[in-house]
Amino acid sequence: MTDVIPYVSRLFIYPIKSLDRVSVERVTVLKTGALKGDREFAIFDESGHFVNGKRNQRVHALRSQFNLETNIISLFVQRTKDIATFHIEKERKALENWLGEYFGFPVQIRQNLDMGFPDDTVASGPTIISTATLETIASWYPGIDVEEVRLRFRANIEISGVPAFWEDHLFAKAEQTVDFQIGNVKFMGVNPCQRCVVVTRDSQTGETYPNFQKTFVVKRQQSLPEWAERSRFNHFYRLAINTRLPASEEGKAIVIGDKLQIFTR
């Protein structure tokens, strides 16, 4: 690891869970270890379940643009021209009505300022992946480019300056963590993230790529670095790193260009 200099090359937050990302230059850490504004809002059905790509493929064709300064969200359906714009706080009911009409059932928008709505509430910090990993995965699938892979896997922090799957340094055996730092922000690497059906689908249309998961599992196993902690792979449908951040990191910022340094392994 001494011959590489990992650094943050991209930062993404997803203001509304399951909808489109916002690229940022810097992001602040909350007391829970989550990133400010990431998955702060989520769409729920009447049964209290998330409306997301796992449950409803119509999510994939829904495009969104979120202005972090004004809290204005613009929505449109893929390959259409009609754009609907709402203030997510002042026009919440109108936004819910628009989304309900699109999905075909009533929905509610909920907000969580403390943690957002992460998939993993134990390892609720940002997810991390390397650019080289995304490039390698794109090479496994004819017709899929790096940007499409990036859109499918939806990581928060992208690291450059390292080879593919370098981020597998950031987890250890079960019940152990790897301590590292990005800029002046302390992290604990927890585990490789288990993926779901969403990454098998086109991020813009929801169309399923044939044998995506089967190919991924075979190639991921073949590509797993010799030094990686294999005990964390009860299966090989895992990619990107789940993290936790101590409460002491509240208010600190992660910035494009910040270097990553591992303290223990």
Automatic annotation (TrEMBL):
<dbReference type="GO" id="GO:0030170">
    <property type="term" value="F:pyridoxal phosphate binding"/>
</dbReference>
<dbReference type="Pfam" id="PF03476">
    <property type="entry name" value="MOSC_N"/>
</dbReference>
<dbReference type="InterPro" id="IPR005302">
    <property type="entry name" value="MoCF_Sase_C"/>
</dbReference>
<dbReference type="InterPro" id="IPR005303">
    <property type="entry name" value="MOCOS_middle"/>
</dbReference>
<dbReference type="GO" id="GO:0003824">
    <property type="term" value="F:catalytic activity"/>
</dbReference>
<protein>
    <submittedName>
        <fullName>Molybdenum cofactor biosysynthesis protein</fullName>
    </submittedName>
</protein>
<dbReference type="Pfam" id="PF03473">
    <property type="entry name" value="MOSC"/>
</dbReference>
<dbReference type="GO" id="GO:0030151">
    <property type="term" value="F:molybdenum ion binding"/>
</dbReference>
<feature type="domain" description="MOSC">
    <location>
        <begin position="92"/>
        <end position="263"/>
    </location>
</feature>
